[in-house]
Design a protein that fits this description.
heterodimer, A: Glutaredoxin, two-stranded antiparallel sheet, 7 strands, B: alpha+beta, 4-stranded antiparallel β-sheet, 21 helices, 11% strand
């Protein structure tokens, strides 16, 4: 009987370890975005490569498209970039970039160096549109449907796993 | 080339730690003196290798070698040199290297300063520490190599997180890690004693100074972190019950319990299995804290870039180290005797009360920290437990703890008498009540929690004064000088009372700032004034200034007290272009009785700003109290009986009566 008491710390710890193992699979940053299933915020921004041309939300109506928030100062963006370049080659849906709080020359140089997967990038130097989209870390990726409704938001760099299990099934469902 | 050298040194260190972890341990079991003799040189070599690896990484930082991924992520050409050096531990990989270096420092310190330990004991202790080093080195090499290269080399780095570009942040992590890792010494002593089966008063005396040393670092580390949050986050708060703060607070609570429990084990040979458990728990909580911070299971302001592999590795390490030591405990501890008996009212009982309360407090913090995770794990949604929970739980736990703190040091070992204690402490109790009433009369209404806080603080002071008076008054007709009698007080006793006084100072600070602080968030145009009591704050606008790697909007706010100028404050809003982030730099006029705290909020239209104007009475006493606690620890750890090299158990038991 006495031995039993000395086993309690071990038992309690093992229970804790099981809980931590389960917790490891969950992502505390995966806060459900209030924007999911809501209309995407309206915007009108200059193109990164051509300040004279403007892109608006309304231009996108009628097609499923993806918006990837990036910046030349963002190291994690560089990590996901090859993946985006690969993904863009498949030409599943139009992929737009939101160049967030960046310098135009830096951003262009960055794309020239690492490749440009985007149909076009929106130049959001003050980060206003980013704030409307609820961006709190770069990179982030959104999927927006034919009616201009946000269907998915991914925070942090994309991974092959995220594309295969979350993005592609959703795009299929949206019939893109 | 230098980064490759550093990487190679880490692999060598891994090999040496494997040797240190196995051969001396087996040697101790088989009585092989030659194998045991390997322990000390291995510890020294391990330290040299890790230290050189650390130097390699520091050279990469100072030399702006952005071909190293970790340097590129955490440094920048325009970063001042001293921050480039501090950036070594500004991210995950370097923090782990610093952690491993600290572990090697403690290992080599044990090898050097515990030379009087029997060879077998020494061999086992160093072997356990060798295993810990092995685990951390393997973790670094497998998942977090700080020397990984980045191809192609960027022209400039991404810069150190601006939050960390601060003198407080330069020394906070090393202090905290010294504390965390220092607890591994008590852990290794405990595990070695469980393996060897020699758990006695001598073991407790060997462990005590090491535990106290680690506790000192932990105390200073936590206080520095809290002070940093106060002036750097711009909210004027000093403790947020953030998961990472809790991760450092939990080992502190258990280490504090351990220090007290070790005292009983050393003096009375009691509580042995309990003390060993605390020694295991204290370090386990350090490891758990590492897991919580590094794995990303909890979200927090401290969140590091996370990688699931890292979390999994640390969890596995946690299960092996803690699981194995607790299993060892379940196996060996039942054989440990109960030790000397004691009466219901005795210093032992009071210290047991202290231990139970501290451990329950730690449990409460653990629960509050993990509860959101537990709910999430059970699929019951995401919630967060805030300060209200912790405040509600802590006051009822702290109050009896402080009450015991007043009585414990005056109670006798083995058996104390209630009437005797009551008559000795009645003056302390009376003085506490009078001092509280006097404070309320001077400062005005402070609420019921405030009254409890004041009573607690003055009760501690009163009881320390009583103890001091009893020790210093002439006794038995022997005429000796006051100074002579003061010198007779052992340092361990003086240190204990000084640390307790630190607690009183801390409680006074917390109580007075909680009940008397005034916080105003006001919109101010240049020329506007805000009045708090006799203080008038005049905002005379904002101008742009340039720092080495940032641009700042610097406000100017002059303060007058009853018309007399007090100070002109310059709070800043700094923008760091490399990381595209904005930092608030509060301006603080610190004082013994109050801080004037001003920080810039957001600019609003027409040149106006939201300005936060705080008056914080006695807030510096919070950190002052921590410093006094740490000084007390230092005094206690330097007690002469730890410095006397060779001591036998028999002597120890006879000398306790005087030191008690």
């Amino acid at each position: 009987m006495k031995r039993f008491w000395f086993l309690i710390p071990l038992a309690a710890f093992l229970a804790l370890a099981v809980m931590l193992a389960v917790g490891l699979k969950l992502d505390p940053r995966e806060v459900p975005s209030p924007l999911i299933d809501k209309p995407a915020p309206k915007f009108a921004l200059q193109r990164l490569d051509d300040a004279a041309r403007t892109i608006r939300l309304d231009d996108m109506r009628g097609k499923v498209w993806m918006l990837n928030v990036w910046a030349s100062w963002c190291v994690a963006c560089r990590e996901e970039h090859p993946l985006l370049v690969e993904f863009a080659k498949k030409r599943v849906v139009p992929l737009y970039g939101l160049n967030y709080k960046d310098q135009r020359e830096d951003a262009k140089g960055w794309l020239a160096r690492f490749g440009n997967p985007y149909d076009a990038s929106l130049f959001d130097d003050e980060g206003r549109v980013g704030i409307d989209f609820g961006v709190y870390g770069v990179p982030e990726t959104f999927v927006i449907d034919q009616n201009g409704v946000i269907r998915l938001k991914h925070i942090g760099p994309l991974t092959p796993d995220v594309i295969a299990t979350k993005i592609e099934p959703l795009l299929k469902k949206l019939d893109a | 080339m230098i980064p490759e050298l550093g990487h190679f040194l880490l692999w060598l260190a891994l090999g040496v730690s494997a040797v240190l972890g196995t051969l001396p341990l087996v040697g101790a079991g088989r009585n092989r003196a030659d194998w045991m003799a390997l322990a000390r040189p291995s510890a020294a070599i391990l330290f040299a290798l890790v230290a050189l690896a650390f130097v390699c990484l520091a050279l990469a930082f100072v030399g702006n070698d952005f071909s190293v991924l970790y340097v590129a992520t955490n440094s920048n050409r325009s970063l001042p040199t001293h921050y480039r050096f501090a950036a070594v531990w500004g991210g995950h990989e370097g923090s782990m290297l610093l952690w491993t270096l600290m572990l090697a420092v403690w290992t080599v310190a044990v090898a050097r300063f515990s030379a009087h330990l029997p060879d077998k004991v020494m061999a086992r202790i160093l072997a356990v520490m060798g295993w810990l080093s092995f685990g951390f080195l393997l973790f670094m090499l497998m998942t977090s190599n700080p020397f990984d290269r980045l191809v192609p080399t960027p022209a400039n780095g991404r810069d150190l997180n601006p939050l960390l570009q601060d003198p407080g942040m330069v020394i906070h992590p090393p202090m905290l890690y010294m504390g965390y890792v220092g607890l591994s010494v008590a852990f290794s002593f405990a595990v070695a004693a469980l393996i060897g089966g020699n758990l006695d008063a001598t073991w407790a005396r060997w462990t005590r100074p090491w535990t106290t040393a680690a506790w000192i670092f932990l105390t200073i580390g936590i206080a520095l972190g809290s002070g940093w949050a106060y002036y750097e986050l711009g909210w004027g708060g000093w403790w947020f019950w953030d998961p990472v703060e809790n991760a450092s607070f939990m080992p502190w609570l258990v280490a504090t319990a351990l220090i007290h429990s070790l005292a009983v084990t050393e003096k009375r040979n009691s509580f042995k299995s309990w003390t060993v458990l605390l020694a295991i728990l204290a370090f386990s909580l350090s490891l758990l804290g590492t897991f919580l911070v590094r794995s990303g299971v909890l979200s927090s302001v401290h969140a590091f870039a996370t990688d699931p592999r890292r979390g999994l590795f640390i969890l596995a390490f946690l299960v092996i180290v803690i699981g194995a030591s607790l299993a060892l405990y379940a196996w060996r501890a039942p054989k440990v005797g109960i030790g000397a008996r004691f009466a219901l009212l005795s210093r032992e009982t009071l210290l047991l009360g202290n231990n139970v309360l501290l451990v329950v407090a730690c449990g409460a913090v653990l629960l509050g920290t993990l509860y959101p995770l537990a709910l999430d794990a059970l699929g019951m949604g995401k919630i967060s437990v805030g300060p209200p929970y912790f405040d509600t739980v802590f006051v009822p736990l702290l109050t009896p703890l402080i009450f015991l703190m007043g009585i414990g040091p005056l109670a006798r070992w083995k058996e104390a008498e209630l009437p005797d204690l009551a008559s000795r402490l009645k003056w302390a109790a009376g003085a506490a009540v009078v001092a509280t009433l006097l404070t309320i009369w001077l400062r005005g209404g402070i609420g019921s929690v405030g009254v409890v806080g004041l009573l607690m603080a003055f009760w501690i002071v009163g009881s320390i004064a009583t103890d001091l008076f009893e020790r210093l008054r002439p006794v038995g007709g022997v005429r000796t000088g006051l100074l002579h009698r003061a010198r007779l007080i052992p340092r361990s006793i003086a240190g204990m009372q000084l640390a307790h006084l630190g607690v009183a100072v801390f409680i006074l600070g917390v109580t007075l700032v909680k009940t008397g602080e005034i916080e105003r968030d006001v919109r101010m145009q240049p020329g506007d004034t805000t009045t708090i009591g006799d203080l008038v704050f005049t905002f005379s606008g904002v101008r742009e200034v340039a720092g080495p790697n940032y641009r700042a909007m610097q406000g100017t706010i002059s303060v007058t007290d009853k018309g007399r100028p007090v100070v002109t404050l310059h709070p800043e809003k700094r923008h760091y272009p490399a990381t595209q982030s904005t930092m608030t730099e509060a301006a603080i006029e610190a004082g013994l009785t109050r801080d004037l705290y001003v920080s810039l909020g957001e600019p609003v239209d027409g040149g106006a700003w939201i300005v936060r104007v705080y008056v914080k009475p006695f807030v510096d006493w919070i950190w002052g109290g921590c410093l006094v606690m740490a000084l007390g620890g230092l005094l206690a750890a330097s007690d002469r009986r730890y410095r006397v090299k060779v001591r036998r158990t028999a002597e120890a038991t006879t000398s306790v009566a005087s030191a008690a």
